Amino acid sequence: MERSLYERLGGAAGITKIVDDLVEAHLSNPTIRARFLPYLDRPDVVAEVKRHTCDFLGTASGGPECYKGRTMPDAHRGMNITEEEFAAAVNDVLATLERNNIDEGSRAEILGMVSSLKVEIVDL
Ligand code: HEM
């Protein structure tokens, strides 16, 4: 039987590493870094958002986690995130997965999931 996406991401430990790397990638990405810089003064908030993002990925990939963060529209409402910013964030996701040796099929699955969320995140 094929391994679940959760297993292919390396389970809880693999996902934690991916989310840590993703935040670093966002902070180095000129298109979106300004959105995340203010959080550097709030390590408690960063920890909470990271934990939510791990649970979000865990829940979406078939792991035992249960996402208890806000809905995507609630988390991003009022930010006026542009299509360009959304594309930059997706690029960070794909580059981070590749850097963590996640196979191409799994990367394509995540690209599909993330792309489907665009209407819940952009222009709110
Ligand atoms: C690619 C699709 C995206 C997904 C799957 C996603 C997912 C998430 C998740 C799960 C959270 C945590 C929500 C919570 O703690 O309740 C979050 C928060 C956040 N996201 Fe996104 N996001 C995406 C795109 C973006 C983009 C494009 C930006 C900005 C350029 C962005 C900026 C933020 C910020 C600043 C927060 C923290 C909000 C706060 O705590 O006030 N996100 N996102």
From TrEMBL:
Coiled coil feature spans: none
Q: Which UniProt keywords apply?
A: Heme, Iron, Metal-binding, Transport
Q: Does the keyword field hold Signal?
A: no
The cross-references to Gene3D superfamilies, in alphabetical order and at most eight, read:
Globins
Pfam families, from UniProt?
Bac_globin
| InterPro entries with a match to the protein in the record | Globin-like_sf, Globin/Proto, Globin_bac-like_CS, Hemoglobin_trunc
What is the recorded name of this protein? Group 1 truncated hemoglobin
